[in-house]
Write a structure and sequence with these properties.
The relative contact order is 0.10. The radius of gyration is 21 Å and the shape is globular. It has three domains: 75 residues, no CATH class; 45 residues, no CATH class; 103 residues, 2-Layer Sandwich (Zincin-like), CATH 3.30.2010. The chain has 241 residues and is of the alpha/beta class. Strands 1-2-4-3 form a four-stranded mixed sheet, covered by helices on one side. The protein has a four-stranded mixed sheet with strand order 5-6-8-7, covered by helices on one side. Strands 9-11-10 form a three-stranded mixed sheet, covered by helices on one side. The two termini are 26 Å apart.
């Protein structure tokens, strides 16, 4: 768990790079990470001095600059805020977003062929983003519940309750009591991506680690998990609306 966050800058090949130092008492060496939200993170173990970081950054400057450029490319592909565009990505495909104001008491959302229709009461105080996100969360819970039931059944595993959340850094989690939580934004991704995260967390019901036996179990149920994992690394940021 990170103990603190320090923001600094360095010049690498005439490029000013901002990085964040994350002190982590559980880390055993300094390591670098490109975070979708924060950019370049430097994980600093307990007892290591900040003064050692610039040398490490210069040593890995080519990797850093390349990785940050890829992050910028992913940022450009990010979806517009919900309700701000006439198009919504749903289950990996683009559908039209249609907004109607009619004489009704409560807002409704309907999925019809290649469009999502948001129906609002006249003079409504509700925002399209609010209504649409709530509808997506409800749909996400339905999909996750069905897929967890299916994959847990295949593996003969028991699970607790299922929740959908608005996590900033996680796609899913599994508690020691078998409670499963998922990021509702996975409903925007292609169906196989959602399935991969479900399988990943369901397998954690048996193995609460990322050992070889865990990944073997994942592969027996979902052989192309590496492809989906890479897709999330490259496109996960585009799902953040």
């Amino acid at each position: 768990m990170a103990d603190s966050l320090i923001r600094k800058q360095i010049l690498l090949d005439n490029t000013k790079v901002t990085y964040h130092i994350v002190r982590n008492s559980r880390a055993y060496k300094i390591w670098l990470k490109i975070d979708d939200e924060e950019g370049l993170l430097v994980i600093l173990p307990k007892g290591r001095k900040i003064s050692a970081i610039p040398t490490i950054l210069r040593k890995h400057k080519d990797w850093i600059i390349t990785a940050l450029k890829k992050r910028e490319e992913r940022l450009k592909k990010a979806l517009p805020p919900l309700g701000s565009s006439k198009v919504v990505v749903y289950r990996g495909r683009k559908v039209d977003l249609k907004i109607k104001n009619v004489a009704c008491l409560t807002p409704k959302v309907k999925l019809e062929n290649n469009s999502i229709n948001v129906i609002l009461p006249k003079d409504s105080q509700y925002s399209v983003k609010e209504i649409l996100s709530e509808w997506l969360k409800e749909r996400a819970l339905l999909f996750f519940s069905r897929r967890v039931e299916y994959f847990a059944g295949l593996l003969g595993l028991k699970y607790g309750c299922i929740n959908v959340k608005d996590q900033k850094t996680r796609w899913g989690s599994c508690s020691s009591r078998g409670r499963l939580s998922f990021n509702w934004r996975l409903l925007l991704a292609p169906p196989e991506i959602l399935d991969y995260i479900v399988v990943h967390e369901v397998c954690h019901l048996k193995y609460h680690d990322h050992s070889q036996r865990f990944w073997h179990l994942v592969s027996t149920v979902f052989p192309n998990y590496r492809k989906c994992r890479n897709w999330l690394k490259e496109n996960g940021l585009t799902l953040k609306t």
